[in-house]
UniProtKB/TrEMBL annotation:
Low complexity composition bias: residue spans: 13-23
Protein name: Mitochondrial oxaloacetate carrier protein
Organism: Coemansia umbellata
Each Solcar repeat, start to end: 31-125, 140-232, 245-337
Membrane topology: Multi-pass membrane protein
Amino acid sequence: MERIPPSITSSVALPTATPATATNTRDKARNNILFTWFAGSLASCAAVTFTNPFEVVKTRLQLQGELARATPNMVKPYHNVAQAFWVIGKNEGIRGLQKGLGPGYLYQIMLNGTRLGFYEPAKGVLYQVFAGRPSDAGRQILPLNVAAGGICGMAGAALGSPFFLVKTRMQSASNFAAVGYQHNYTSSLDGLRKIWREGGVRGLYRGMDAAMMRAGAGSSVQLATYDHCKSYISRNLAHRGLDGNSVLTHFLSSMVTGFFVCTVMNPFDVVSTRMYNQKSGSGGHGGALYKNPLQCFYKTVTTEGFFSLYKGFLAHYLRLGPHTILMFVFVEQIKALGKKYF
């Protein structure tokens, strides 16, 4: 874009925004954030309905053999994703495969409503500060997209931490093949009430730092990669019908995004699962096994080896891949309907 000489700008009266125009702009921005928050919440809840069974399988695979050195005689109730899915379904039924779905919905609203609703505003601020231009003017700047995604992901994880805590503990509970510490909550409300009685606010937000690391890593990669892939595909394949509004564009972008997110996020996911599921320390303060995420990383790797951080990777991808695809396809279609009718 050519720079306008000072002589021209000084001789031409540029239009200024009236108070009414500025108010309308602010209202439009607020409405856009609220609608995107709603679209992200609805889309992620729809997606997690289909992918929650793989989340249950992933949680149990990640807790299996916790802080135990692998030996030939080690008893493993879950051998792989397919067998774990079969064992849980056969012995616990559909309700077993959908454990934690209630708090899972609440967590999705807090996490994805926040990070999708505030991603564009956060990106806009970073572009203005570091690039001196709006985020939709010209090519995308990947590091700024990553930073915006990370910030929004950590904020959403912090808000939804109590629900993720209850979800993880409900998903790990099993009367047939128990792994990890068993909390045995009868419902989301029962879980929140027991945690509150045991540790108060600190108990409800135990493990939040691990969840923020997990969501920050995953969200920064997910939103930035999806943004970049969508922009690349629509820019280079628009002549084949793959523009920014194409469902196939959203699908392909999501497939690529899911793999990268899972690769980066799985170690943080293992740590987060274990931090949340561990037994409370004495007096309800802290955890019995890990004091913080760094200690959990250290104890997990030194006891079980580096690749223990990738336990449940396939189940994670089978959950995260379809979830990413469904969520972004749903959210794009909801936003398109919103623009059409509102």
